[in-house]
Design goal:
The complex is a heterodimer. By secondary structure, chain A is mostly helical. Helices cover 75% and strands 0% of the residues of chain A. In chain A, helix 2 (47-74) packs antiparallel against helix 3 (79-109) and helix 3 (79-109) packs antiparallel against helix 4 (118-137). In chain B, helix 2 (24-42) packs antiparallel against helix 3 (49-71), helix 3 packs antiparallel against helix 8 and helix 6 packs across helix 7. The chains are: A mainly alpha, B mainly alpha.
């Protein structure tokens, strides 16, 4: 199966510039424009990164599973590498979710880790699951079998996400009877919503840019290997 | 009914092999009883009954893991998998038959393990038994699938627990929930949902695990 690469409509430098502008705007808005949260004060600002990063990580995992599906279904020769790169970005953003969530938990509740935070626990499970994806992938020689095994495992991931979410929710009834609720996620007023949307767009564009950068590097590697073999 | 006949023949082969060689089942039995003894000493006196109920599920998952690690070893050592893939049968029949055989081993181990647990710790309700059966279906379907994946890699036995445990977390949640709460309905329903979702997924994708594509 030869890796041929793919041509995109948006060039990489334009994407990089867009993500630079968007991330800078999002940072400026989160720190200078948005008013302090009435309840949690200054520390609530980590919300503008924590939640968009989490959403971006889900998007990456979903993208990886979609490419995996394309690989299995259409035998798209690029899909295996694209699936791997998307999952890789998902794992990076997933680790960031754990870090930002941990910071938020420390400031809000005084603990670095809280089992009562669904999102954090879910990302811990996903972190373990997708780390095993890399163990699996690098334990098989490159070739069609590696592509198939990785694709199937990536598909398991998108089924595991909702199932684990449900499991963590119902586990609370016998593990944590008291549920902490944060009131930031509902009814964001004015500037908060705008800042959230800008941060979300910034992180999605950033993730896509990183995805394209890593992908172009990998394609270059593959082409080089082919030339060397020829 | 060709499919059913294929599955039956393959499952029969595994059960017959176990009956003659007696590799897996005695190991699983010894392991699960030894685990209970370890649990007794790891629970300080005064620990609640609930803690023991939770540990039962740890024992089940790890005992299953022991059996699953062995599931594809004969296929690997004798290169049976190559022959099976060439055979004119649906590839998912290989997974289904292996799943049925591992289910039989696990169920046999639990028929001994659950009374031993009741003897060592405390009695077990109907809900727990129902949860164990539902969990076994999930463990065997996902575990057999991942076992087939793991034998295809260089890391082999090392990889199976890493692949399996994150996927087993929902099973443990459902199982522990059903054994400790007074109204276990939703946990049993959750386990059934898990079995259904992952069963269909494994059945549909197993072909890609064993076949060297193109």
């Amino acid at each position: 199966m030869n890796v041929v690469g793919r041509s995109y409509r948006i060039p990489l430098p334009a994407l990089a510039a867009a993500s630079l502008v968007l991330v800078t705007t999002a940072l400026a808005m989160a720190f200078y424009v948005v008013p302090n949260d009435a309840d949690q004060g200054f520390s609530q600002r980590v919300f503008y990164f924590h939640v968009p990063i989490a959403f971006t990580a889900y998007a990456c995992f979903a993208g990886g599973a979609w490419k995996a599906f394309r690989h299995l279904w259409k035998r798209d020769p690029n899909a295996d590498l694209e699936s791997y790169v998307a999952v890789h970005q998902g794992l990076i953003f997933g680790s960031l979710v754990l870090i930002t969530g941990s910071i938020w938990a420390k400031i809000s509740w005084g603990h670095w880790w809280l089992w009562s935070e669904d999102q954090l626990v879910l990302f811990l499970v996903l972190f373990l699951f997708y780390s095993a994806y890399f163990m699996l992938r690098f334990s098989v020689d490159p070739g069609p079998q590696r592509a198939n095994l990785s694709a199937v495992y990536a598909l398991f991931g998108v089924v595991l996400i909702p199932v684990s979410f449900l499991a963590i929710r119902i586990a609370k009834h016998f593990i944590h009877p008291i549920v902490f609720t944060s009131n930031v996620s509902s009814n964001l007023p004015g500037w908060m919503l705008v800042t959230y949307c800008v941060a979300q767009a910034a992180l999605l564009v950033l993730a896509y840019t990183l995805y394209r950068v890593e992908l172009s590097g990998k394609w270059l590697d593959a082409r080089l290997r082919e030339l060397r073999a020829a | 009914m060709n499919y059913v006949a294929d599955v039956r023949a393959l499952a029969r082969k595994d059960l017959l092999l176990e009956l003659r060689a007696r590799d897996t089942l005695p190991a699983m039995l010894l392991f699960v009883v030894a685990t209970f003894v370890v649990f007794h000493f790891s629970l300080p006196s005064g620990s609640s009954k609930l803690a023991a109920s939770g540990l039962l599920w740890v024992a089940i998952v790890f005992t299953a893991l022991l059996g699953l690690g062995r599931a594809f070893v004969p296929e690997r050592e004798q290169h049976v998998l190559d022959g099976l893939v060439l055979a004119p049968c649906d590839r998912s029949a290989i997974w289904l038959a292996k799943g049925i055989a591992t289910f039989a081993f696990l169920a046999a181990a639990e028929i001994v393990a659950l009374p031993v647990f009741a003897l060592f710790f405390h009695g077990i309700g109907v809900a727990t038994v129902a949860a164990v059966v539902l969990a076994d279906v999930g463990i065997c379907s996902v575990g057999t699938f991942l076992g087939a994946m793991a034998v295809a890699t260089r890391a082999r036995d090392l990889l199976l627990p890493l692949l399996f445990l994150p996927l087993a977390i929902p099973i443990v949640v459902g199982g522990v929930g059903a054994s400790v709460v007074s109204a276990p309905g939703r946990y049993l329903a959750f386990l059934a949902l898990y079995d259904l979702l992952f069963g269909v997924l494994c059945w549909a994708t197993f072909e890609y695990v064993v076949a060297e594509a193109q």
